[in-house]
Amino acid sequence: MTEAEKGAKEVQDIFLENAAMFQKVCDRIQFEGLSRSEFAMLHMIHCKKDERGKMTLSELADFLEVSSPAVSRMIKTLVDKKYIVKSPSEKDRRISYVSLSPEGEALYESCAERMRNIGDRTMEAMGREDMIQMLGLLQRFFETFEKELDKDINTGKENSSSK
């Protein structure tokens, strides 16, 4: 194995180890009885809602890059828990809007505040400059990794369609 191959393998090993640690930390996060995906759904609705405080199911599905039926199942669960309100469009009954209920908004704010507190303590322990630098590099890494993943997926599609 050449030095370059050893270096590439070392980077891969560090990446996989960090991915596993990130997953472990994410699995430990508790959102007051919500699954991670349910909290993510509340977060998306909270952050991406329009000026009326709503968003459509199709907007949510597009943003999360999941199917409409998958979004509908999760929305039903959150409606049943009374965290989300679902309402039909007045103009087109085929379109449904979702918004956070007062209970959902309160739960989201409580969870978000807890995460901000943990983030503040983490930044204090790491130092602000190191934290900003690390997050910038992490963002750049994910953007680059996603582009390379897209290339890989598109190459795979091209290879399978040429057979």
Notes on the protein architecture:
With 163 residues, this protein is mainly alpha-helical. The protein is 73% helix and 7% strand. The chain contains 6 helices and 3 strands, in the order H-H-E-H-H-E-E-H-H. The protein has helices at 3-28, 36-48, 57-64, 68-80, 102-126, 128-161, and strands at residues 55-56, 84-88, 96-100. Strands 1-3-2 form a 3-stranded antiparallel beta sheet. Strand 2 (84-88) and strand 3 form a beta hairpin. Helix 2 crosses helix 5 and helix 3 crosses helix 4 (68-80). The radius of gyration is 20 Å and the shape is globular. The two termini are 33 Å apart.
Strand portion: 5-15%
The helix/strand series, from N terminus to C terminus, equals HHEHHEEHH
Question: What is the overall pLDDT average?
Answer: 86
Computed over alpha carbons, the radius of gyration is 20 Å
Strand elements, count: 3
- The side-by-side strand order for the widest beta sheet comes to 1-3-2
What topology emerges from the helices and strands here?
Layout: H1 3-28, H2 36-48, E1 55-56, H3 57-64, H4 68-80, E2 84-88, E3 96-100, H5 102-126, H6 128-161
Considering the chains and any ligands shown, give keywords for the structure.
6 helices; 163 residues; globular; mainly alpha; three-stranded antiparallel beta sheet
